[in-house]
Amino acid sequence: MSEPLDQFDRSILEIVQRDCQHKAEALAEKVGLSASSVQRRLKRMRESGVILAEIAIVDRKIAGTPMTFIAGMEIERENYDALSRFRVWADKQDHIQQIYYVTGSVDLVAIITAEDVDQYDDITAGIMSQNPQIKRIHTNVVLKDIKRGMFVPIK
Predict the structure, then answer these.
(1) Which residue from 133, 137, 139, 138 is spatially nearest to 75, judged by alpha carbons?
(2) DSSP assignment letter at 115
(3) DSSP 22
(4) What does the buried/exposed string (b/e) look like for 70-96 if buried means 16 or more CB atoms within 10 Å of the residue's CB?
(5) Rounded Cα gap, residues 94 and 70, in angstroms
(6) 7-18 and 35-48 are packed helices; what angle lies between their axes, rounded to 10 degrees?
(7) Torsions phi, psi of 110, nearest 5?
């Protein structure tokens, strides 16, 4: 984004991160701008990539994939080409919700959702067979969600 976020942009982002279904008129009233100004600002922030997506967060249990697994993956040697190939492959896997390239005892950390342990086992078997550069997966099973979200504090 070529121009920095001002206080109005920050206020709008604070609100739409919690609920992106606010109408421009309601946002305008909360932040002290006109509805058309809010619409222009939202459009600019979407086009410039400040707002990456506006999504619905679905209850995993109701959707039929109640289990969450945190998978730490080790890559065969430092292989940056393998990372980009894995990312392209993983983008197509809906059960793999998030992946982070990290420091420490593993190279990647993935958040994976599944119906049960058997389905998770199938997912990890697919990861290993389709991505031979992944040499080991360390799994943690989430027992209970304590906090879940994607809210980004706005400075």
Answers:
(1) 133
(2) S
(3) -
(4) ebbbebeeeeeebbeebeeebeeeebb
(5) 15
(6) 80
(7) -120, 145
CA angle at residue 13 from 11 to 19, to 5 degrees? 110
| pLDDT tens by residue, 21-78 | 999 999 999 999 999 999 999 999 999 999 999 999 999 999 999 999 999 999 987 6
Residues facing 137 on adjacent strands: 73
Residue 66 in contact with residue 50, Cβ under 8 Å? no
Residue 64: left if φ>0, alpha if ψ -120 to 50, beta else—which one? left
Which residues are within 8 A (CB) of 135 and not within 5 positions of it... i.e. 6 or more apart? 74, 75, 76
Q: Is the pTM of this model over 0.85?
A: yes
Token digits of residue 83: 């990372």
